[in-house]
Design brief:
The chain is an alpha+beta fold. The protein is built from three helices and two strands; from the N terminus they run H-E-E-H-H.
Length: about 70
């Protein structure tokens, strides 16, 4: 619901992941990749810092390890 409220949508949510190039100890085929499209970088940052997402972020951080990026593109 927090994503819907800002006009964001999942483009990729898990699924099979196969790494074809590059290697390091932190990257392997068991990782889960999620891609969320936001209307803008500003909206993405506002969502990430919002009080509505804060309890979900806390839960996510306590239950998993991960990397999160904002990537501008078209």
């Amino acid at each position: 619901p927090t994503l819907d409220a800002v006009g964001a949508r999942f483009l990729v949510r898990g699924g099979t992941r196969r790494q074809l190039e590059g290697a390091d100890a932190a990257h392997h085929d068991q990782l889960r990749t999620i891609v969320v499209e936001f209307p803008s970088t500003e909206v993405a940052l506002a969502w990430y810092e919002s009080p509505q997402y804060a309890p979900l972020k806390e839960l996510r951080l306590s239950a998993s390890e991960g990397r999160m990026f904002i990537v501008e593109g078209t």
